[in-house]
Design a protein that fits this description.
By secondary structure, this protein is α/β, with parallel strands linked by helices. The chain has one domain. Helices cover about 30% and strands about 25% of the residues. The termini are far apart.
Length: about 260
Amino acid sequence: MATGDPTRVQAYFRGTRNELLAAFDKSAGVQHAGERGTARESFVEIFLNRSFPKKFVVGSGEIIDGAGAVGPQSDIVVYDETMPILHYGSVNQFLAEGVLAHLELKSSATSTTIEDSLIKTTAVKSLTYNVDPTMHMGDMRQNIASFGFAYECPTSKEALKETVGRYYAANPDRDKMIDGFFVLRQGIAIVKTNSGFAAVEPGEDVLLLAFTRLYEAMWKNWMGYPNFAPYLGNMSFKAFQERRHPFNDCNHSCRIPF
């Protein structure tokens, strides 16, 4: 490989980004909810399902925790295949401890849609994440990883950063900050840092940056069982009473004919 040439992985994700944008442009004639649904389906099929192992469940719905809180409707939930899902017809509910990543997907990154993603991220990261592992490697996550994606942005990188900065000036809890927001067409991103967040411009490698951040967040670094006790509430039941066989109550010699 000549110096300056992209690696195979770079080339793959550059091609995937172009494929996503082509599918988005093709769906431009579909209006409103239809466009949103098509954009989501393309993102899931072209990027998530192809790039990540089948061990991950990709769905949409609500995230709940053991304290009884219910998160907002999530565009995309990446879930541990070993964890239970509550199905209510067309609506799914996912237990917080089984969620590996929460994603919000927007057609366009405007100040309104960006703020919507940040509000949902704050709500999702506020859910109780109750894991008590028997063993883990590295630092344990304290809440759910959350990311935002948009196909395009009608404003500049500076305007995007200003919108995020304005929201977090009013909501400064770093633990509830979005882990990353990525704009595919313009190749710009907001990424969480140790001191807050930064606006970066990876260009055509924006999807590769998103992949690495997402994969790192989805890596399950603990073994053991989530604590399900809070989900059980005040469930209680009487112990089963032993049923005495009539023969046991005989005052005379009882003989079982075999």
